[in-house]
Amino acid sequence: MSMQNVPEQNKNVLYVKKLQRKYKFVVRSVWGQYAAESDGSSISKQYVVLKIKDIETESEIIHPITDFVLSNWKHRSFNTMKASAFTVAMFMNFLLENKNYYNLDNISQLDFEHGTAFLNELTYKKTPKQTVKKHESVLISFFKYLVEKEIIDENKCEFKEKTASIHSSVEIIMKSPFKVEYFNNSTSYSIHQLPDEYILRFLEVAYQLNSCIALGIYMQFFGGVRTGEVCNLRVKDLQLLGSYGENGFILNLNQDRHLRDDLNNTAGSDYIKSKRWQIVLGFKNWSRLFFEKHMSSHLPKHVSGGSPLFINRDGLGLTGSSYYYHFNKVKAEFLKTLRESTIAKDRLNAITLEASKWSSHLGRGVFSNLLAEEADNLYDVSIPRGDKSFNSVKPYLANTGRIKKKIENKISEIYKNDQPFLE
Q1: pLDDT by residue (tens digit) across 96-155?
Q2: N or C, which end of the chain has less CB nearby within 10 Å?
Q3: Which helix or strand (DSSP H or E) is residue 46 part of?
Q4: What are the DSSP calls for 72-141, one per residue?
């Protein structure tokens, strides 16, 4: 590629100069070694980098502004790094798109006015207030970084401090230099659990559709497992409780597993947030039925223990984004059954659920709600929600039978004689 059109980069120039082509900033993920095991084997971690992309040739090079993200968040979770990087990419792309309007030739010309314009553009697009505030927080740090690196003049961008009450203590924080109008949207809200009477009905729809994630949804509803954790499971990471899994499962969630090395994934939905062993409770014979149907319908007959437990049509491990896609298909079919129900309450609830924001994260809310009401104390709740040692889990396996029975009794009370039956 000719050097004539390569974005100019050095310690003082973190921008695209004299554009002859169209460029944009993109966020990419990379894996790097950050520690080593006692046996010398490497421990890798997923990081993010900011790249500048030539839209015509699709070539990409790492941009030095990546240093801002890594110097502030390299020891934090991948999702935290990713969120901050996306904010910077969005802001830089906003500047590129409006380069002529603002007459910008150099990043040293930036001032708070440009940050304000970017944030208010988000508000104009009806971005929720809390989302804009998250972007604003990153931009404050970004401008501070540019000043500290002497890329922009500190006299032009003067920061002020203020006191704030954080976790019952008074702290001094940076006052936002941006003048932002926030959008308040009260017409849509997120929900974190289904009404009790729809827990089994949602699972029933997933089972009848023979969805490739039906077993995953069961694990979320009766084990509180996150989407990224489901996508990290291999076949051998699931141990049956009972001869056929009728009492539930134990999941090995002790490490992130790179089941899709072919992808450069920045979704942040394919990792384990808290390393642990996780109990998934059985419900009647449902756990056995979901497990058997998954193994017979969605995995090869002689699948190896090291293979992903959830796969796509090409036999590759399911990604978080694919999981959300399949969850939304189940969700759409479930809402359809409510809309077409002969029961007025179902049709009314369909309207509420369709107007709300919810996805597979709702499974953790369902599980927490079931446990909170049926466990005798928090000790019962803490073990099923996850423990780091398998030996510390084993003494409490007897508790799962008792909790399983309590939940079965509770759900039987909810459904009376109208409880779904799986075949």
Answers
A1: 888 888 888 788 889 898 999 899 888 888 888 889 999 999 999 999 999 999 998 887
A2: C
A3: strand 42-54
A4: HHTTS-HHHHHHHHHHHHHHHHHHHHTHHHHT-S-GGG--HHHHHHHHHHHHHTT-BHHHHHHHHHHHHH
Q: Output the pTM of the full model.
A: 0.61
3-state secondary structure of 161: strand
Residue 83 to residue 178: CA distance in whole angstroms: 20
Q: What angle do CA 56, 57, 61 make, to 5 degrees?
A: 115
Query: Residue 205 pLDDT more than 90?
Result: yes
Q: How far apart (Å, rounded) are the C-alpha atoms in residues 97 and 126? A: 20
203: nearest Cα among 296, 116, 313, 287: 287
Residue type at 335? L
Which of 88, 412, 110, 46 is closest to 260 using CA atoms?
46
The whole-angstrom separation of Cα 189 and Cα 187 is 7
**Best CA proximity match to 394, nearest among 383, 385, 380:** 383
Q: What would the pLDDT profile of 53-90 be if each residue is shown by its tens digit?
A: 988 889 999 999 999 999 999 888 888 999 999 999 99
Q: How many CB atoms lie within 10 A of CB 247?
A: 21
What DSSP designation does 319 have? P
Q: What sign does the CA torsion over 396, 397, 399, 403 have? A: positive
Q: Amino acid letter at 44?
A: S
> What three-state secondary structure class fits 58?
coil
In sequence order, what are the beta bridge partners of 279? 250
Round the CA-based radius of gyration of the chain to a whole number and report it: 25
Distance CA 225, CA 276 (A): 11
* Structure token pair of residue 1: 């590629």
- C-alpha distance from residue 420 to each of 21, 206, 208, 326 (Å): 60, 12, 11, 22
CA separation for the pair 410, 322 (Å, rounded): 33
Closest CA to 295 of 376, 210, 225: 210
Residue 157, pLDDT above cutoff 70: yes
> What are the C-alpha distances in Å from 185 to residues 31, 126, 127, 131, 193?
38, 8, 9, 12, 21
List, in sequence order, every residue forming a beta bridge with 25; answer none if it has no partner: 52
Q: Which two tokens stand for residue 258?
A: 């790179």
Three-state secondary structure call for residue 399: helix
Tokens of 406: 């309590």
Closest CA to 278 of 384, 198, 420, 193: 384
Task: Determine phi and psi for 281, rounding to 5 degrees.
Answer: -70, 145
